[in-house]
Specification:
Distance between the termini: 91 Å
CATH class of the largest domain: Alpha Beta
Strand order of the largest sheet: 5-1-6-13-7
Number of strands: 13
Radius of gyration: 27 Å
Number of domains: 2
Strand content: 15-25%
């Protein structure tokens, strides 16, 4: 009887050891946790690295573009330079397209997006916006020979838009009879309207007005369309330290009317007397 009990005990002990070993192997075989797609660098990490990465447009003159010398220029870039200077770090620019702005933040490719980024409820679910520094509505530019003055005139015609812009969303939702000719880049869109591949082009009124002033034969027949929106810097969702710093920066810069100085330096040479700066510029984040 004693031998039987011992033998049973030995079998139970062996079974426990086997199960423990199997459990241990199972733990070891679990894959390492992946880095979340929303990874970001905090304000302190950016300062420690000595560099901030900012996503800007490279083809949207006069807001963000690369000049003949290969340097980034424009209204957004002017602000980006000040951010880097006040943080005490160098700035590295990453060219972005409208449809890539959210993705670049979600994947941590950039720390900030400063690319004429209009604040919308849909975008705010994916990124965190800071205080605004500009206000804007949509506009529509077309050839003088067939000037579009009302959006209804575009029904059954081709309207050029850039993917990922508020213009694409607005016309999709409100004017389904308008045929949208979509491009990834602003240079593609402007070339298309210049070549006559579309009847008109719509984007922020600031951009179509600037383009029309630099391209005789075209006029902004619809200067204001849709609601008045704001443009603001954006950071990766949850990056509270960087968002808080940028908000404080924008509020402080109001004391020196920084964005009016930005306008005078980058936009006034294009707009001249055709635009009142106060129609576009927002100081201190107060609209």
């Amino acid at each position: 009887m004693a031998k039987t009990i011992k033998r049973a005990s030995a079998l139970i002990l062996a079974l426990v050891l086997v199960l423990s070993a199997f459990a241990g192997c199972s733990k070891k075989s679990k894959p390492a946790p992946s880095i979340p797609s929303g990874a970001f660098r905090t304000l302190d990490q950016i300062k420690e690295s000595g560099k901030i990465v900012i996503g800007v447009f490279s083809d949207k003159n006069p807001f963000g573009y690369v000049d003949a010398n290969g340097s980034y220029q424009g209204y957004d870039v002017y602000f980006a330079e000040r951010i880097a200077a006040d943080l005490g770090v160098a700035v590295e620019y990453t060219a972005t397209e409208p449809a890539s702005r959210v993705e670049y933040l979600e994947t941590g490719k950039v720390d900030i997006i400063l690319a004429n980024f209009t604040v919308t409820a849909e975008r705010a679910e994916k990124v965190d916006f800071c205080l605004p520094y500009m206000k804007v509505a949509l506009g529509v530019v077309s050839p003088d020979s067939a000037l579009i003055k009302e959006p209804e005139q575009l029904n059954g015609k081709k309207l050029i838009v850039v993917k990922g812009t508020t213009a694409e969303t607005y016309f999709t939702e409100n004017y389904p009879e308008v045929e949208l000719l979509k491009f990834d880049q602003y240079t593609e869109a402007t070339q298309a309207i210049a070549d006559g591949r579309g009847d008109a082009w719509s984007t922020d009124k600031t951009e179509v007005l600037a383009w029309a002033l630099m391209n005789p034969g075209f006029t902004v027949g619809i200067p204001t369309l849709g609601s008045l929106d704001t443009i603001a810097p954006a950071v990766t969702k949850g990056n509270a330290t960087l968002q808080k710093w940028i908000n404080a920066e924008i509020a402080t810069l109001a004391d020196e009317q920084f964005f009016h100085a930005d306008y005078a330096e980058t936009l006034a040479p294009v707009y001249g007397d055709s635009v009142d700066p106060d129609e576009l510029v927002v100081e201190g984040g107060v609209v």
